[in-house]
Amino acid sequence: MKIQLIAVVTINNFQQYRHISAPGWSLTWAWRAGKEVIWNIKGAMTTEQGNCSRLFKGISLPHSCKKNPTLVDLLPNTPYNQKVPNCCKGGVLTSWTQDPTNSVASFQLTVGHAGTTNRTVQVPRNFTFYAPGLGYTCGPAKIVRPTMFISPDKRRVTQAIMTWNVTCTYSHFLAQESTPTCCVSLSTFYNDTTVPCPTCSCACKHSNSTCVKTDTGKNPSVECSNHMCPISVHWHLNLNNKNYWRVNVTISNLNYRMNYSDWNMVIQHPNFNNNLTQVFGLKYKLFTPLDGIHLAMVWGIKFYNNVLIEAGNVEFEVLFRKDNNSSLSLKKDWGFPQRIYFNGDQCVMPPPDAYPWLPNYA
Q1: How far apart are CA 178 and CA 324, in angstroms?
Q2: Both 185 and 115 in a single domain?
Q3: Residue 228 and which of 34, 35, 134, 244 are 20 to 30 A apart at CA?
Q4: pTM, whole model, 2 decimals?
Q5: Is residue 245 within 8 Å of 262, Cβ to Cβ?
Q6: pLDDT at 326
């Protein structure tokens, strides 16, 4: 009887504000020896079995004989005997900031023809991570200190034969093949002009076939607009008094066919240092400034507004405290954000010369 190895694969989403949305992640690698097979798997599945009859005879065949298997997560309704801890979320992982416990995925493999010692086991190569599209680049696997496993009663510790880590990084440049998905409009109390989202921010409205005016039950699903973005963000500077600035923000989902679960938005604004007093209606976190860039992340409250429903919106308020020593002023457009990201994707901003102008008497 040939010895089979059990491998546990854990995927951690350490990104602060980019989560893995539906239809979820997929992971591919190439077996280095080329003869390894996956006999059994829990918590995930391969998308193809491959030609196992060429190597194996009989009724019982391996789960996958592909030399470069592609694995995907199982759905939440998977039978209990096919699950392992942290599996079966449909490939969806939240960002690390929002919910660390749901930013982890795991599955277990039973591998044959893979060797039996740390001298004979060969580390796979050519790891590729999709989530669900392009943008991620994975480095080579690096052998690290073997993982230690503690028994449930904490009386025994066992050690893995080998452990290796693979780091995958996300690049906006590599993901630029996709069009933008959001845009920003601006308004203020001191000017009646509303600066709309730039025209054709996400697409151009050429004909009635490219959008819908109402939910007609037909594709396409994005509401007709000059910007044609499924997500629009409106920033309204509502109040400016001696001690505070108050801002109203509205996030609108103009997609009639998609809910955005566990959404988040990152705002770059110079007043996101120690002057952010409160965010009303959402959770938020300030990030440590880097090279003078001040960022804050906001996201919905579970079971209240963490799901941005189709053709719906979420509203919240931001209260800034004024600093007497600060150089920030309305004359320099500091009342408006410098950048906004929705679910990790940068939104299209109006050009600076289109911002609402400050009247001379102000």
Answers
A1: 44
A2: no
A3: 134
A4: 0.84
A5: no
A6: 55
